[in-house]
Specification:
single chain; 166 residues; alpha+beta; 2 domains; 3 strands; elongated
Length: 166
């Protein structure tokens, strides 16, 4: 005997997407509905959370002499590997926290969120390092980029975590 379970639907409530899950009793009668936000759309609020989140770890890490020295000493290949690892961590974290059950219809939003997290983390880091004069733009662009990529590793992680706050 096959029972007809009510289907979970997606509805826009107050301008935001929500998953509407029917709560049923043992007989299959709908008692109520549970709403859970479906955080697959990338909005201005998310961008602000990313910028603030990136700043949380960018500030303390960017102000350490160890980071500046690491940028000068590490080969570019190692820094690029660190950057790739950062992107992979962000992609996995975003997938499992936002898109695991709704990936199929939101691939563009998924990619946009990953790119935004990493790009704006780099922007925050670059701004901070430039202000404290540890990004020698014009004289040693490679060193400036290496320092940015190194500091962006923890900054992008904190940006991704702060993006989950709703």
């Amino acid at each position: 005997m096959e029972t007809n379970k009510p289907e979970t639907t997606v509805k826009r409530i107050g301008g935001y997407l929500h998953r509407v899950v029917p709560v049923v009793d043992s007989a299959g009668k709908i008692l109520n509905y549970a709403l859970s936000p479906l955080m697959v759309e990338f909005r201005l609020r998310d961008l602000m959370q990313i910028i603030v989140g990136a700043s949380i770890l960018a500030v303390p890490v960017a102000f350490t002499e160890e980071t500046w020295n690491l940028g000068a000493q590490l080969p570019l290949a190692n820094v690029l590997w660190l950057s790739a690892l950062s992107a992979i961590f962000i992609a996995l974290f975003v997938y499992y926290n936002f898109y695991r059950f709704t990936f199929k219809g939101h691939i563009f939003q998924y990619v946009k969120r990953i790119v935004a997290i990493y790009f704006f983390s780099l922007l925050v880091v670059g701004l901070i390092l430039t202000i404290i004069q540890k990004c020698p733009w014009g004289t040693d662009n490679l060193l400036a980029m290496k320092r940015m990529l190194i500091v962006a590793f923890p900054a992008s992680m904190s940006a991704a975590i702060s993006d989950t706050l709703k």
